[in-house]
């Protein structure tokens, strides 16, 4: 039983919701442990086809709980390496789509976790802010990796060094969000993605996710070889057989995710 998050699995969708609304879902040690546990379970669970990641209350996540990072023996490096990095690595290697329902502000590490998702559906009242600079810190939890890949180096530098708050419309224009919606329509907008991915060929989506990740540091020849290798894996899947049969039989395929 979790104390700082909510975790449910229903109809192929694993919903992970940060649940410290009184602190705007700020991270403490327990939340980092429970979040890693939930993502790890969703990664391994055969019944999960897509992960919905959100927050309870007004905020998505306000970042690190500063009340939880004090003491003479406190180490920033240890906190980042032991609490945050394992979660980001799990999300990145998770061969299933992660849809972020960005219901409110995502600041600092909260912004990083949103950017580590594969799809971001954003409330019109939500915002993203790399707030680290405002307290004299640097990007962590993967923001230095994700931000320039999405925005390019110049815009990433601006947002990171000025702590600029990005509203929903700006996020959509910059490519930080896939879709924005009114708070009343947010769940419906999220369902557009979760309803699709829970019925999609999950193994192929995981392979596509890996290909797109690898393309940032690989040559064309390397990517051509990877595509051939991954196509061989996809072509041996049950979903490929179902897709071909459905096409020949002129019906909608029923993918099982394997």
Describe this structure as you would to a colleague.
The protein has 258 residues and is an alpha/beta fold. It has two domains: 5-197, 2-enoyl-CoA Hydratase, Chain A, domain 1 (Alpha-Beta Complex); 202-248, Lyase 2-enoyl-coa Hydratase, Chain  A, domain 2. Helix content is 46%, strand content 15%. The protein is built from ten helices and nine strands. The strands form two sheets. Strands 1-2-3-4-6-9 form a six-stranded mixed β-sheet, with helices on both faces. It has a three-stranded mixed β-sheet with strand order 5-7-8. The chain is globular, with a radius of gyration of 19 Å. It starts with a strand and ends in a 10-residue tail after the last helix. The relative contact order is 0.11.
For the record, the CATH architecture of the largest domain stands as Alpha-Beta Complex
Helix content: 40-55%
* Envelope shape: globular
What amount of the residues lies in strands?
5-15%
Q: Which strand order spans the largest sheet, edge to edge or round the barrel?
A: 1-2-3-4-6-9
Our Rg estimate from Cα atoms comes to: 19 Å
Major beta sheet, specifics? 6 strands, mixed
- Please report the total strand number as a whole number: 9
**Domain module count:** 2
Properties at a glance:
258 residues; alpha/beta; 2-enoyl-CoA Hydratase, Chain A, domain 1; Lyase 2-enoyl-coa Hydratase, Chain  A, domain 2; 2 domains; 10 helices; 9 strands; 15% strand; globular
């Amino acid at each position: 039983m979790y104390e700082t998050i909510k975790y449910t699995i229903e109809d192929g969708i694993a919903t992970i919701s940060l649940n410290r609304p009184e602190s705007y879902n700020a991270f403490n040690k327990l939340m980092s442990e429970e979040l890693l546990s939930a993502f790890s379970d969703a990664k391994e669970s055969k019944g999960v086809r897509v992960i919905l990641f959100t927050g309870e209350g007004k905020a998505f996540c306000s970042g690190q709980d500063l009340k939880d990072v004090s003491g003479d023996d406190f180490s920033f490096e240890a906190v980042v390496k032991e609490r945050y990095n394992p979660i980001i690595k799990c999300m990145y290697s998770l061969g299933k789509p992660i849809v972020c329902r960005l219901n409110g502000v995502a600041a600092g590490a909260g912004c990083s976790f949103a950017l580590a998702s594969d799809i971001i559906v954003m409330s019109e009242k939500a915002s993203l802010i790399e707030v680290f600079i405002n307290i004299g810190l640097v990007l962590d939890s993967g923001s230095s990796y994700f931000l320039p890949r999405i925005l390019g180096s110049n815009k990433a530098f601006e947002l990171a060094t000025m702590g600029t708050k990005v509203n929903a419309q700006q996020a959509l224009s910059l490519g930080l969000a896939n879709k924005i919606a009114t708070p009343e329509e947010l769940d419906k907008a999220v369902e557009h993605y979760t309803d699709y991915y829970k019925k999609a060929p999950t193994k192929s989506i995981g392979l596509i996710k890996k290909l797109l990740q690898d393309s940032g540091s690989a040559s064309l020849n390397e990517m051509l070889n990877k595509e051939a290798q991954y196509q061989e894996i996809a072509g041996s899947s049950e979903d490929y057989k179902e897709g071909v049969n459905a096409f020949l039989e002129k019906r909608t395929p029923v993918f099982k995710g394997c």
